[in-house]
Amino acid sequence: MSQPTLISAQGLSVHYALRGGLIGPKPYVGAVENVDIEIASGSFFGLVGESGSGKTTLGRAMLRAAPISRGDVHFDDGEVSYSLKNLGKQDLKDYRKRAQLIFQDPYAALSPRMTVRDIIAEPLEVMGLTSSRAETDERVREIAAKCRLNVEHLRRFPHAFSGGQRQRISIARALVSGPKFIVADESVAALDVSIQADVLNLLKAIQEDMGLTFLFISHDLSVVAHVCDHVAVMYLGRIVETAPTRTLFSNPRHPYTSALLSAIPSLDPDDRGKVQKLEGEIPSPTNPPPGCKFQTRCPHAIDVCRIQEPSLEPAGTEHHVACHRWQELRDQTN
Amino acid sequence: MSRLIDVENLTLQFDTDEGRITAVDNVSFSLEAGEVMGLVGESGSGKSVTAKSLMKLNPRNAVYGPDTRITLHLEDGPVDVMSLQNDTEMKIVRGGSISLIFQEPMASFAPAISIGDQMVEQLMIHTDFTKAQSKELSIEMLDRVGISDPSTRFGQYAFELSGGMRQRAMIAMALSTKPKLLIADEPTTALDVTIQAQVIDLMKDLVTEFGMGIIFITHDLGVIAQTADKVAVMYLGKLVEQGEVRDVIRRPAHPYTRGLLAALPTLDDIDAPLTPIPGDIPSPLERPSGCVYHTRCQEVIGPRCSAEAPQFLQVDTNHAAACHIHDASEGAA
Ligand SMILES: Nc1ncnc2c1ncn2[C@@H]1O[C@H](COP(=O)(O)OP(=O)(O)O)[C@@H](O)[C@H]1O
Ligand SMILES: Nc1ncnc2c1ncn2[C@@H]1O[C@H](COP(=O)(O)OP(=O)(O)O)[C@@H](O)[C@H]1O
Ligand code: SF4
Ligand code: SF4
Ligand SMILES: [Mg+2]
Ligand SMILES: [Mg+2]
Q: Is B285 within the bounds of a domain?
């Protein structure tokens, strides 16, 4: 079962400097703080948490697209082994080929004058991965077919396409350089439910077919439950719990994970009023509370939570949780 | 309960550069005071256009069908919304008896005017309150929707608030005129689930307290299950199913509703495969003939589906659907 680790972070922090602060330490936003994470090769790894918890920043840091302030990220696909913090220019170029991001809507980020073919081919051309136009076209056609895009459509402009088709264009563009690691950031968030299922099934099929490793970022826990094999929960820049999907959803140990699960509106009208409501909002990362970052909203917070920050500790097979009281709370529910 | 609004044969088309498109096609429903109706459907199904029609808020290129009738039942008697002509006449429905809240509250707050000033201005247009009374009531409403330190918030601007707080402020503003009908157009779609749960809770408390009717628009069936008394499902401008929330969710009568429910990932069985509805939502310029859903329907019963639009038929008490499957003449099928 145990696959080698493809990518991992050790004590990873991403800080963004803020203006001001002439006296004393420079103020900053701790978008990601001291994160340890290990993603096994071939995994479909989910990352969840409320907006502002640092999911996008963590994903970008693992692509070397956000600054690494502390700690490091290691990537090893059996062919190359990189430490992302100190990556030379040549290696960075090579890494771009191996690690890619699926945009939420490529059309929003790209020129409306580009055809679908141009959008998919661009990474190949920018990275100089093909030596002739014929080779590029061949590669684009191949990947378009994998993403169930109609080859006839390659000559068209994406504005004519529906949300689902655009998302498939976006996936094809991310895959064309032959990457091993893919970050999908809210890839289905903007899609209608009837279309969303199709894109999720496509992502899973491609992952199995091409042996890819995914970091799947989503604010939708139900989607994550269905497609991911492993999940990490983030809160205010920290990972507060990580476990195999089944374990996380059946035995959540962190009060924040439980609150997130409980907030999902049930399809059963008779469940009304059963939600254990989480009060308040996620604090600003410019001014995080002392101790456990969740203490301002946690219904179980006690004195120690307001002073000392809990660290991730083992709570079962491949299960880690950062809470002072997880054992106590578990024993209460059992 | 007493009848609050009747919508009969609402049809609305838009003149566009590419031709005339049908956004809402012969939609009828009614709502009682104190009742919450969920209006559900995917993007482009005509939910927002329907909501705006109730206040005649659609842009100039909108053409209402000749049989469209919208009747608002107020204490002083029924109001025929379609016959309201100028701004003075419209005042009765816009921000007075009917309030609208949107997905993106930024859109309804002017950026350069403080939240409090906007609330006061609105109250002074629609009520007989003095400025001082309006301010007092506004602060009270901000407090009521769970905004801490409401006197300070009163002087702040929308951009200074978090998404959740902005949505609360918007609800406070919408409710301060004590509307009889509140239309909430995807009020929680842009929010995190945790904040969504807070806002839904707040809205439920307010319905109980104020006894108003609510039309809750969303594409999320879970949100509907947790908030609505009854549901109307729309697809491409057509009302395809309507009924009490338990009936529609537990015994969906229309293939589209069944498809939506099957496509939805739920936590009850995380190993269940996700079943998409095949194909894409057609463009309004290529409206399918016959039953509008036939290009994606997995239960097509024959050539009749693409030839003839199904009638909206009763399938059970207070439960109706527009599908040939329920047509008695098709009974043997
Ligand atoms: N380039 C940046 N400069 C300053 N702050 C940033 C930047 N990018 C993200 N942040 C802040 O970092 C925090 C985490 O953001 P993000 O990673 O986007 O979270 P998520 O994806 O979970 O919503 C937020 O408070 C955000 O405002
Ligand atoms: N001002 C307008 N001009 C032309 N078409 C419009 C206008 N407003 C809405 N529509 C069209 O009407 C249909 C219904 O839109 P809408 O009510 O916004 O859908 P929903 O809210 O269900 O997503 C869509 O096809 C949309 O493109
Ligand atoms: S450490 Fe304390 S405040 Fe933090 S989650 Fe655990 S119980 Fe709650
Ligand atoms: S009328 Fe025919 S196409 Fe339309 S929903 Fe019913 S079975 Fe499907
Ligand atoms: Mg993000
Ligand atoms: Mg809408």
A: yes
Boundaries of domain holding B273 = 251-332
Q: Where does ligand 3 bind, in terms of residues with CB under 6 Å?
A: A 255, 292, 294-295, 298, 300-301, 305, 310, 323-325
pLDDT of B158-214, one tens digit each?
A: 888 888 888 888 888 888 888 899 999 998 888 888 888 888 888 888 888 888 899
Distance B14 CA to ligand 2 centre (A): 8
* Predicted ipTM > 0.85: yes
Q: Is residue B322 part of a domain?
A: yes
How far apart (Å, rounded) are the C-alpha atoms in residues A24 and B313? 73
pLDDT tens per residue, range A79-111: 999 999 999 999 999 999 999 999 776 667 667
Q: How far apart are CA A311 and CA A304, in angstroms?
A: 13
| DSSP assignment string, A122-136 | HHHHHHT--SSHHHH
For chain A, the domain total comes to 1
Do B158 and B111 meet the contact criterion of CB atoms below 8 Å apart? yes
CA distance B220 to A160: 26
The answer to whether residue A52 is domain-embedded is no
Contact residues of ligand 2, CB 6 A cut-off: B 14, 16, 21, 23, 41, 43-49, 59, 61, 284
Query: pTM of the entire structure?
Result: 0.93
Structural domain boundaries enclosing A298: 252-334
**CA distance, residue A97 to nearest chain B CA (Å):** 31
Q: Is residue B11 assigned to a domain?
A: no
Tell me how long chain A is: 334
The predicted-structure confidence for B246-291, as pLDDT tens digits, reads as follows: 999 999 999 999 999 999 998 888 888 899 999 888 988 899 999 9
Give, for ligand 2, the residue of B14, B54, B57 to mutate: max count of ligand atoms closer than 8 Å to Cβ: B14
Question: Is there a domain that residue B278 lies in?
Answer: yes
Count of domains for chain B: 1
The ligand placed nearest to the CA atom of residue A47 is 1
Judge whether A110 is closer than 8 Å to chain B, CB to CB. no
Gap between the Cα atoms of A29 and A48, Å rounded? 20
